Amino acid sequence: IDSATNLRRENKHGGRGESQPGSEGSNKRLDKAFVLQLAVWGLRGVTRVILANNPLCGVLIMAALLWASPWQGLLGALGVLASTLTAVITGQDSGEVTKGLHGFNGMLVSLLMGVFSSSGDWYWWLLLPVCLASATCVFLFSGLASLFDRWDLPVAVFPFNITILLYLLCTGPNNPYFPHHPAVPPGMLEANGTSLIAIQVIRGIPLGVGQIFACGALGPSLLILGSVLLYSPLLAVHALLGSAIGTLAGLSMAVRHEALYSGLSGFNGALGCMAVGGLFFTFSWRTHLLAIACAFLSAYSDIALSNMMGTIGLPVCSLPVTLVITLMLLLNGSLAAYRIPTGQVMAPERNLRSRSQWEAGNTEERESTDV
């Protein structure tokens, strides 16, 4: 952002401020460069939803969303664009903007507004609250960051969860302009409950990864899983493992069959397992067990909070896993030694290499100082 501003200044004369010959072409090139940068920042924001940071993965995810529903793909693109532009205009930290940290909350809130809307696809008036809600996430992110930084905690998707709940509370199922479907508690008994279909339950495991983006179609969900695999195989393994754990937790609590078949029981567990299993903690057998525990706790918290908030027709979205991960990052004891500072988090494989190099350096230093 700063470099683009400096280049614009260099294209001007001192004193009169007259343009040099060819400066209009330079400005056009700068505008094209900014649009390209904005696209890259937005794609990074898309991948931040799955705890990744790769524009190519963002392209695959956007393709998956457009494949599943062009309307949802449009809402997601508009949400990430509105929040990223808001961050640029309001002068947020350029490093955070370029890493996509101001885009993913806006994308999530726009996707969920589309999913819960009972006005159907291509309801153009919905674009107005989508833009406003996405912009709101930027201010919430900035405000919460100053608080969370004191404990070296990520803001994560707290802005998204706060914004979507406020929106649903403001509108309601019978709103004349922006009505939405009320959420159904997962523990509600089914009128015509039949035996479970095993193949549908197994199918729900990869769908749990797709539900991170509110996508309930198998093909697009597999493409989203492929984008995770492209970024980090270790992260993809933990995503499937966490979704399977969430499905198992749902089975143990006899949740509605639809929650199991659609992957809604698995996505909180998937996110919890991904975050702890190599992302915010260096991967080891101890942190792997902690990731499994985090997945179970996230899934059961999802069921408990969904049953409570579902009584008033509200979803919990990803609030359960966000709270659980925050508590996990505050752990003390021997596991705290595996914690990676928030500003140094990379792909799990790179985290593992960095820790090995750091430990090797410390070993050499100790040997050189031994008498």
Contiguous runs where pLDDT drops below 50 for at least 5 residues: 3-19, 363-371
Cα Rg: 22 Å
Mean pLDDT: 88
Task: Output the structural class.
Answer: mainly alpha
Q: How much of the residues is beta strand, in percent?
A: under 5%
The rounded distance between the terminal residues' Cα atoms is 52 Å
Order of helices and strands: HHHHHHHHHHHHHHHH
CATH topology of the largest domain: Ammonium transporter fold
* The CATH architecture of the largest domain: Orthogonal Bundle
Q: Give the total of domains.
A: 2
Name the CATH homologous superfamily of the largest domain. Answer: Ammonium transporter AmtB like domains
Q: In CATH, what is the class of the largest domain?
A: Mainly Alpha
**Main pleated sheet:** none
Oligomeric state, counting identical vs distinct chains: single chain
Helix count, per DSSP? Answer: 16
Q: Strand tally, please?
A: 0
Give the fraction of residues assigned to helices. Answer: 55-70%
Question: What shape does the CA trace take?
Answer: globular
Question: Your description of this structure?
Answer:
- The chain has 371 residues and is an all-alpha fold.
- The chain has 2 domains: 32-182, Ammonium transporter AmtB like domains (Ammonium transporter fold), CATH 1.10.3430; 194-362, Orthogonal Bundle (Ammonium transporter fold), CATH 1.10.3430.10.
- The protein is 66% helix and 0% strand.
- Helix 6 (104-116) runs parallel beside helix 8 (158-171), helix 9 crosses helix 11 and helix 11 (233-252) packs across helix 13.
- The radius of gyration is 22 Å and the shape is globular.
- Mean pLDDT is 88; it is low at 3-19 and 363-371.
- Residues 7-16 have a biased composition (Basic and acidic residues).
- Belongs to the urea transporter family.
- The chain crosses the membrane at residues 49-68, 122-141, 153-174, 194-216, 228-253, 259-281, 288-306, 312-331.
- It catalyses: urea(in) = urea(out).
- This is Urea transporter.
